[in-house]
Queue: 4 jobs
Job 1
Amino acid sequence: MKIGIIGLGLMGGSLGKTLKKIGGHEVFGYDNQETVMLKADMLGAINAPLDETTAKDIDMLIVSLYPSSFLSSIERFLPLLKDGAVITDFCGIKRKTMAEMKELSKKYPNLIFVGGHPMAGREFSGIDRSVSGLFEKASMILTNVNADIFTLEKIKAFYLTLGFSEVVITTPEYHDRAIAFTSQLCHIVSNAFIKNEIASEHFGYSAGSYKDLTRVARLNPKMWSELMIENGDNLSKELDEFIENLQKYSVALKNGDRVELEKLLSEGNERKLLIDTKNKK
Amino acid sequence: MKIGIIGLGLMGGSLGKTLKKIGGHEVFGYDNQETVMLKADMLGAINAPLDETTAKDIDMLIVSLYPSSFLSSIERFLPLLKDGAVITDFCGIKRKTMAEMKELSKKYPNLIFVGGHPMAGREFSGIDRSVSGLFEKASMILTNVNADIFTLEKIKAFYLTLGFSEVVITTPEYHDRAIAFTSQLCHIVSNAFIKNEIASEHFGYSAGSYKDLTRVARLNPKMWSELMIENGDNLSKELDEFIENLQKYSVALKNGDRVELEKLLSEGNERKLLIDTKNKK
């Protein structure tokens, strides 16, 4: 296929490298920073620039930018695309871009719009950190706008060739609600955890639990703040629920109430067991 | 060496198996549950039972029990031990057992008391889950009572042979303050996180950040509640500081204040970078 990528950061760059590695595709890329374009070329993430000429033959256009840049970045290319071309965004929240895609699908009924969220990432950002194996064993989430079931199956199959272990189709609303918990809240927790005063001391040791918990404290603040504010309704609900639960442990500790603390820990323990069992099925 | 182990659970069992695997030691074990004694024998975690006869030749006695059982479990063996025998507990908090060891060292001045906390573990407990590689690349923390520097060096060297990557010597007070954050708080966070209502839904996907964050939600509630209540002063301080920091994110989200949220995320991001750099040195 001929694939266009707009935005050649960690995600877009990794996508280009992955496509080039699995072969059988031609990759055309665009980034508004000239140095990134040069790097994408040097690192072999693209075959050629995506421009007014190359856009005409594109089968699939993937936009890997912040939600706020999605619309403005594709407007120039949409009138050039051939009938049946598929447009997908890679934004980490889906309600905003799906609403925009819905509007676009009315204006360009011959184009196919399907939202996407590759649940892969690294603690780093930028094309320098992009890698061809980024999607290995990750989940790809699709939110459909106007694709028929056969096209959707083709798109699913395409993403599986990139290394994703599963492709899940859901609604933008459910996606944003779930992601507020499974991804965004994790990042806030990790980012806030590292702020405890004692964290800056060098212990000469750290447990595995600490390493796991603080891994995603490192993040791209510009991108995440946009995604989180855009999903603020869901995220603040999840965050407040979490704080409320934490406060119960705090009360038990202050009361020296071992029975209550053991009960709280048991509840979490059993819940984790149950959820893991359910997810294995 | 001849090594006695009291308490043959996950830790004690893993210690026995590790000692047997590296060789050169004779392992004598004691557990107050007969089925555990039988399993320890069958699984090859011990050479023979630790009893009134075998205790006499022990060079090192390691107690791998809850803090509340430490004192009562060793009293019967202490009068039997030979001069210079080393007694170490494996409790996850150190102030309580160190105070007890200090008293014992007055009563038994010819015995050597050194507290220990192997910073290794699994989400499971019991001898069935014990493994010989449990201490691989983990940190061992020692809190000294009455060992001279040469003996302490010998003990350090011994633990390095078990697979530990480092042995750190510190005070019980500092250990408990640090561990409240690096280990206990992580477990509470993970255990509380999984309680959000939405966690019980099966998404068909989950991000790496979610997997990392919920790993230690599964824990031994009986053991952890004892360790946490015993360290309640330090732990509740750390927990409250964390909750306070989380609340700042909640406020920014509710106000839709992207500038503030980006600032909060940047602070966490930079702090994580700084700490990682410091810890690498």
Note: Strands of chain A lie at 2-6, 26-30, 48-49, 60-63, 86-89, 112-118, 139-144, 166-169.
Job 2
Amino acid sequence: MRQFIVVGHDAPTTPDFSLDDLPGAGRLDLLARCVTSSLLLSHGIREDVRTHLVLGDTVTVTVDGATVQRLNPDERSTAALVQNALEQRGEAVGHVAVEPSPGVSLRRLGLAETLDVVAGDGQLCVLHEDGTPAPDLAPPTDPVFLLSDHRAFTDAELSLADGHADVRVTLGPERLHADQAITVAHSWLDTEGFGNFHGSL
Amino acid sequence: MRQFIVVGHDAPTTPDFSLDDLPGAGRLDLLARCVTSSLLLSHGIREDVRTHLVLGDTVTVTVDGATVQRLNPDERSTAALVQNALEQRGEAVGHVAVEPSPGVSLRRLGLAETLDVVAGDGQLCVLHEDGTPAPDLAPPTDPVFLLSDHRAFTDAELSLADGHADVRVTLGPERLHADQAITVAHSWLDTEGFGNFHGSL
């Protein structure tokens, strides 16, 4: 399984935002693209992927490729899934999840608690400019990629992550958007051993 | 320079569509993401990239990284740039371009004419599942990548492309969305020789 944890520093933790202005809603456009770039293929879904959006260090919304329904590639409908989840945050008590729609769950967890829950599932790989270049690493088994949104990780977040992290990885010489980094991370793992045979685009 | 030509089979050729339903507007959500994934980095722009959207085999909208302004990462504002260009399509006569906003131009060209104009700038690389795996190829110089939207290329389009094409390329074993394929194509070129040094995410 591949998992992605995306830290949304300015992301909304309540549903009172407009789907007409996702950048103004704490860059929910970017977070929506992180969901779709991690879970969707052309005319298909990556069933072995789970993506966690940590919103404002307060609430974590998880989308599970194995069970999610009605996930479309566009930002607006994906943001609507998040908004719908936030509308039911009142039902989430303690660390118990609510599942407002199939495959979309919400828990009252910040980054520290989300790392406690998820990082042990595999190898935590922090995507960071100071990391080891991916080509120099063996592709991880059951990776849990940790990414930040449009802001850099804070020192406190990096310190938290380092408590769990197996490695810091950098994917290339250019600074990518988080959703682009997810696409490249998938490609890194997909194409391990790729070449010398005919594949599909 | 890197260029991308994206064939939008169902894309609108007039501006009368709603920004609230980009998937319903001939998958303009996907085409908008193709623009942003080709041109935008995190907090930066790829100035050496030009992206051409062929809309309904009738109109081609080109976004030039060297001169475009007000290009934001979200789908809606990018689709609004395309909509604004289409509002001025009446000004485009013959093959002469109009430039409705800085770095965004529109010409009355279908795929055949766009290939005639653009393909000669470099190596035409058709992104296609039957192509040669990228790792088996030397990265092209001044590539012009040709991609299709959510539909497969028609036989007529492939025949047109083959008249110009240097190579068919496949980027991996999974079928990607066109915008994801653009991100991976950039990564292929960005990371040539990457490794054994510290880069940026």
Note: The helical segments of chain B are 28-39, 75-87, 111-118, 155-162, 178-190.
Job 3
Amino acid sequence: MKRIAINTGGGDAPGLNAVIRSIVLASHQLGWECWGIRNGFNGILEPEKYKNQGGGIKPLSLHSVKGITHLGGTILGTTNKGNPLKFPIQQKDGSFIDIDRSQEIINSLKDHAIDALISIGGDGSMNIAHALAQKDFQVIGVPKTIDNDLDNTDATFGFDTAVEFATTCIDRLHSTAEAHERIMVVEVMGRYAGWIALHAGVAGTADVILLPEIPYDINAVAKKIFEREKSGSHFSIIVVAEGAKPLHGNFSIIGKNIGQSERLGGAGDKVAKELEILTGKETRVVVLGHLQRGGMPTANDRLLSLRFGAAAVRAIAKGMTDMMVSLHSPNVECIPLADAIGKRKTVSLNHDIILTARELGIYFGDELSFIQE
Amino acid sequence: MKRIAINTGGGDAPGLNAVIRSIVLASHQLGWECWGIRNGFNGILEPEKYKNQGGGIKPLSLHSVKGITHLGGTILGTTNKGNPLKFPIQQKDGSFIDIDRSQEIINSLKDHAIDALISIGGDGSMNIAHALAQKDFQVIGVPKTIDNDLDNTDATFGFDTAVEFATTCIDRLHSTAEAHERIMVVEVMGRYAGWIALHAGVAGTADVILLPEIPYDINAVAKKIFEREKSGSHFSIIVVAEGAKPLHGNFSIIGKNIGQSERLGGAGDKVAKELEILTGKETRVVVLGHLQRGGMPTANDRLLSLRFGAAAVRAIAKGMTDMMVSLHSPNVECIPLADAIGKRKTVSLNHDIILTARELGIYFGDELSFIQE
Amino acid sequence: MKRIAINTGGGDAPGLNAVIRSIVLASHQLGWECWGIRNGFNGILEPEKYKNQGGGIKPLSLHSVKGITHLGGTILGTTNKGNPLKFPIQQKDGSFIDIDRSQEIINSLKDHAIDALISIGGDGSMNIAHALAQKDFQVIGVPKTIDNDLDNTDATFGFDTAVEFATTCIDRLHSTAEAHERIMVVEVMGRYAGWIALHAGVAGTADVILLPEIPYDINAVAKKIFEREKSGSHFSIIVVAEGAKPLHGNFSIIGKNIGQSERLGGAGDKVAKELEILTGKETRVVVLGHLQRGGMPTANDRLLSLRFGAAAVRAIAKGMTDMMVSLHSPNVECIPLADAIGKRKTVSLNHDIILTARELGIYFGDELSFIQE
Amino acid sequence: MKRIAINTGGGDAPGLNAVIRSIVLASHQLGWECWGIRNGFNGILEPEKYKNQGGGIKPLSLHSVKGITHLGGTILGTTNKGNPLKFPIQQKDGSFIDIDRSQEIINSLKDHAIDALISIGGDGSMNIAHALAQKDFQVIGVPKTIDNDLDNTDATFGFDTAVEFATTCIDRLHSTAEAHERIMVVEVMGRYAGWIALHAGVAGTADVILLPEIPYDINAVAKKIFEREKSGSHFSIIVVAEGAKPLHGNFSIIGKNIGQSERLGGAGDKVAKELEILTGKETRVVVLGHLQRGGMPTANDRLLSLRFGAAAVRAIAKGMTDMMVSLHSPNVECIPLADAIGKRKTVSLNHDIILTARELGIYFGDELSFIQE
């Protein structure tokens, strides 16, 4: 009999609950017990907050995970704050210093007779998991990033749901864009990698897609819109990843000057405002934001989450530690956490989807490709 | 045999295409012909723009309306600009004066041997339809307002779709709000009437709903959030109609001063920023904006649109003019356009849904109700 | 302080959980307590079955109704069996006799110190509720019928969700029907009233709709399909209510004889098989069946359910009994249960939707209308 | 300048229109022209049928593919009949003989000055494409099978949409199953391979999944249901692939005899009827059938379809022939048609998803695994 603790950290993603349920069910089949830690590691580090809730770490019954596979969020709660490796502690003079509290976590887990930890989260969480595993405790990581930008797994859960939702939203904007002959700018998630923008933009038949990986020339985008006008298409759909960046740090716009772009908001707002000035066309922006993180996971994401959860339990059963489950289609395997940390998968310029998009006439705002056409 | 012209004006709404298809099919059954006018009345008033598109007014074949019942937008295009009663014409000195060009429309319709006009649009469009009907031309109006704020019909199409979508979005935010213990503010449409906020807010189990009809006290909203904290609910969902307004024109916040609220953006941004200051809790805002106008109409909206279209043709066949179709459940009837114009239906404070919401513990930000509790 | 019992009876419908949650929340605001009875009245009548589940009647905490507004089904369970007015009891000789056990229910409720009962269900359940109210117990009914065939309320919850789903399914079949030039027959719910078939059929742009209220001539339907072929439409969508019936009890088919229609299955199967014989076209049938009862309720159905639940609590608070909540738009009112029982609302032949459908060229299989065309 | 012909064959699948649009757009970017063949090759083989439709093979304009990416079906039509390699021709005596008409197709394509053919379809269509490529004509195949059972590509379009829909349907049935304490049997597609049943069954948290690859013992399934009853779960969800088969050709049921199972219908009906007899529990069956083939493709399927279409044009441009596009993640490559034909990918018993499912307690009806538990 083993007792496993589970926690979820970082931004929430559709599929977290499916992973939790999978771990609890698979453990139950082995006769094991599961405990859940609240809000990252805060259930352990700030136990007083959870006094009225039965404690910051408590058993997870089969009943507690019933019917949660298709629910967004995480029944354990999550947080972006309170990294136990650099936990901010207020000093007497009011200032904060960061303290490594990882040993407290290990101690608490041992106090609760926990044998192993399954930690579900993004790159930051995997880092913490790796640190805990160094302290002679059995730890398995389950990777989560809605942006799909983790290098050592074919896919992460949450991404498929985000792409599906973003695509549906682009669909919705098409009819309005066309009916009103407007430019519609849609900002989607993707600070460092443009996977959501690329997948949803192509699937949603956007006209222009702006990614963090391809700095854009706003004048060239405006030209593309004028070209569309000439060919009888009086509207355009522009999908912008939140991390998209202009080609020139401080760009100048030929013909019109948009001045110091003070307070333009996010990437989408910026692109919209500039295009309205440059093209003279009515332009509207929609920022999908947190809508992309919630909702019922797609069948794909549920399946991947369930597989990851079961694989994590399997790894515990095999005595593995300091490892992360990872999809190497068609298998789920385990790789060392040390190998998984800090490696980002970005969109390469010669990826087949980029190639496809260009062949379909979708424009990425890069000067070169535009001149080539 | 008759020849009917159709146009769509104002903001687009799910169901416009279903109305158009219904008019074309019902006309076809009677052996009539339909013509479509592009972009409001611009197809007639600015014909040069449509030269390459076969003209600004042209026949609508059965084929042209095939498979459009469930598509958002309008195949005729629409616009918020170019009111023919006050059409802006640029003078030699660069200034604009507004000219009544309604007679040109009548002339053009007669030139094309059109017998009657069915005009689909909001209050502005019904006003124009009424003016045209005064000029001895057969005109029937079909009301459209996604905000559901028209007084002389039980319902207008587009509203149900907007409410359904907004509710789904609120669902998506719930899981994130709870997982991260955040305040989530969702801004929905409704400049003068809060129907979308009220319906979606109650159906989506919001905690606070702010409507144009009930000025809100932001301090009281913050208190409500603190109350929820105390009872163990560490998150809150706030639905804000875009027309929601604070109780005091220039409010002061007891304890904390949020200063001159410079550049706070829309109603949702404002509420979010103030709540973050007042409560100290992480707060995020999502503005649904144009997403609410697009997309596939719900079955309800399709049905209502099809009924309105058929009823408009029926009215033409009966020789009616200067009338508007209108839902008086379970019937669709015709009322004089003059009676329909300019009458807004807002949420009354003793509406059964308001009552229900209060009984469920939903708070509207009104000082009084809060003190009562 | 009051203690209210809630039960759900009959076939499940989307919205039941929303009603339950609404009752619990509204009661909580009044400082009352709610108890839930399992599986109709079986939790009381067969208590031994629920021993391991904490009893067949037990308190409903606020926590127990958290997050259930948008879930299908009913957390209390439901059943079509075990009518307490005619409860089947097995005799020693193996035969069954029906016994009125309503007094046992009253006794049990009183034993549990319950002050009032809110009973949610169809016509059968309202009948039982009425009987219980005769025994000097406070009872309020909440009507539920997915078929929308109850006469004394503008609408019942579940119907909107069923129509929306059925319409989406018809959409899905359109593309296949057209791609393969087939006849697609879709059987939807509606044993005695054709509301779902009518609403979904019109919204989904079916070509033929067969209702219980309009006996159909299968030969005339075949003729309609041939007409469509001639006009270039090589596919047809036929929506059939499960209660649709042929015009002639024992029909003969001119030209072809389909013989004794042995073992044709349900209404949809029958229509499909006959049309395939009569037209020679590939025909496929899909029976939506139980898919129509499940799933997340639409925003409309959630709102109606929440309103009904709150209104039931309001009625209890006002001391009403032997009444049923009912939608008289825009209000929810109470009517005597005695007036509500046994009155079915069917589709009248001159309903505006029927009229609309005919004007759009949709055919109902009635000989007369076909000849007229 | 090249002129390319496109055709679609076999059962329809979500994504066909996206492939067509992708081919037309990518060709347009190269200055090429596209023509479409109607209903498989029937547009060429039975030209008289298409006289009134502008011919059985005709140009595809940019306009003709506008807005079709997200539509189900195929604008070209498709068919399962009329294999040109074995085309059934009626003889004078009424009998049919099969004739190879492939040369007629080549001749017709050449007559229309077509340079190359892109043929989209299943295994049968790829066979035909290969035969045509032997006749000195440039041919590229695009694989389509909703069952995902093609061995030489990581994925085929349509599968993801079918799985997503089937999962949603299983979700819908859960609430009813639980509310009524019933067994719900859902039959999904998959005659030879159980991919849809496996993916949707696991994602939809079925209790039992029956696949063509794992013959099932109906008694063991009944035992599993009894086990669930004992542990307090009074309902079960059984997902059955249409090709699922019992372990013993002519099985006997211990204890109860269900006799010669005359006329039990499909795999789902058979399982439902037998389980109802064996367990005595109310059992309902839903056959998803053609609903799985239609509808809007998921973002995934749209993306894959667009990639396949663009890759096919790329292959033509490179002078390739007798090849099929195929997904080898993350790339789309070309493999010889000869290598692709006739190789089916079935579910292997040690596939990670099977393993995951067993670890979660899902049962496949195989005697062995059951005894092991």
Note: Residues 3-158+297-340 of chain A form a domain with the Rossmann fold fold (CATH 3.40.50.450).
Job 4
Amino acid sequence: MPKIIECVPNFSEGRDKEKIERIVAPFKNNSAFKMISYEPDADYNRTVVTLIGEAQSIISALYQFIQVAINEIDMNHQKGEHPRIGAVDVIPFIPIQDVTLDECVEYANIVGENIAKSFAIPVFLYAKAAKKPDRVSLPTIRKGEFEGMIDKIKEPEWYPDFGVAKTHPTFGSVAVGARDFLVAYNIDLPTDNEKQTTQIAKAIRQSSGGFQYIQAGPAYLEAQKHMQVTMNILDYVKNPIYRIFEVVRFEARRYQWDVKSAEIVGLVPKMALLDSIKYYRQVEDLPFDKAMDLDKITAFAIHYLKLRDFSKEKIIEAWI
Amino acid sequence: MPKIIECVPNFSEGRDKEKIERIVAPFKNNSAFKMISYEPDADYNRTVVTLIGEAQSIISALYQFIQVAINEIDMNHQKGEHPRIGAVDVIPFIPIQDVTLDECVEYANIVGENIAKSFAIPVFLYAKAAKKPDRVSLPTIRKGEFEGMIDKIKEPEWYPDFGVAKTHPTFGSVAVGARDFLVAYNIDLPTDNEKQTTQIAKAIRQSSGGFQYIQAGPAYLEAQKHMQVTMNILDYVKNPIYRIFEVVRFEARRYQWDVKSAEIVGLVPKMALLDSIKYYRQVEDLPFDKAMDLDKITAFAIHYLKLRDFSKEKIIEAWI
């Protein structure tokens, strides 16, 4: 069985379309993995790439991608709202199928070592790949950003995990890591009231006493003129989507609101949807076929979970 | 303002009614505190006493109570299903009003020291009053029970917090501690299916990924022939009763069950009920008066939360 991972490199160019195309070119037309999306953000001046597929093929393409980024981006002239330490800022490896989180930590080590050796770019290992407690969280690593890292890296506690204590003059440095898969999930509310939306987010999020594997907060959607509870589900087995949806639904009722709709950002595993579909089929006392195909899963998920902008392509299993 | 605490001493006699009356006599007819209940359990051979009121008056009465327990109970001849280390087994102090948990820790220290000095009974400080990590949890202290403690107390790591390493020949030893108030809350389900009831308990309890301040499990009620989700709510502000009730309700729907009823065991603060009543009044878009009296609170709580065996006397504020 091929080892299937997700990899979500972020690079520090979100405005120049032609440059962006050149930078992501190494990810195109590879039969062993797919580039599911690349989403530039002009304010952030940053692009998020989502790759899924066979691990070694993704890793090979990453080196070409780093080389193009070195050629295309000079961090001395890059400005944007998103904090960043390098032309490629962060590379996380995420286990998907027939691969463990520990193996993803290994990929981070291999890729980190090679980037340092081949390109003279210092590498920090983060998240589950971190070797020091203060490198688990990206914001701690990023503090001071590209400009500050020139001196920060000379402090003994910020000696890089690979490479030497000297940032690359135009690229900077890069964080490479491994983490578990998470579902990015948002629930749309028919309101612009941030305070009440925050109250609902607090009902479900771990940090306020809610569910163990939920991070959540309020967000206002400018274009659509309403609030949403935006969240990460860190364990979709222990905190299934339907349960979060139903709690938000009954919490919203105290303000006489119905949930408008909901969205999955990025990818979702088939099982996460099936678990929730099963709940609603049981409630309705209707048959549930766990072997249903992805089209059927898509239709049920849209119906029961009020998903908008959803299609089969958002299900991981559509790609592997 | 008087410092109001709850104190729940447990003693090791649950069968001989006359003895029990003599042991609880020091708690009767005191104007500064009330003995809300004393509940003997014959199988356990143990009685749980619930006191509420002014701290110093409760503490004074505790010393008389210890003296009577010494006279009435010989642990060398006591047998029962509940593990125990002494004639009085455990004395927890719980903050209720105008008193902090730290002050309750102080009460535990004062009472512990006096019991050791006046009666030559060794004292272990537990829960928030514990001075060693392995004394936080009662089961660890109780391991070996009255009989085993005779030798266990001679081990250096089990030297008592007050007194010397020698159990009282007939009384044994006692655990004295402090903890936060908790709401003991059970939800009745129309089923005898333990597996499905456990699934519902797992949806809400912290240890399975659920709400942060909920401990829950399944229990079968012999007399009533149905299961319940039995739980402790360790923080009723962050995990309000209505939220737990509504989650159990929608989880039960997948089995086509309606929640039958629910119960509060022991006491509940007025605010815990008001918060939940407010939720349902808002959902129904009806007025909510936070200054309503205890009779009204009782009626609403029974109506909205389906409480059985509930009366005003279960509300803490009825006693202070």
Note: The interface with chain B takes residues 203, 206, 208-213, 235, 238-239, 243, 246-247, 250-251, 253-256, 279, 282-283, 285 of chain A (CB under 8 Å).
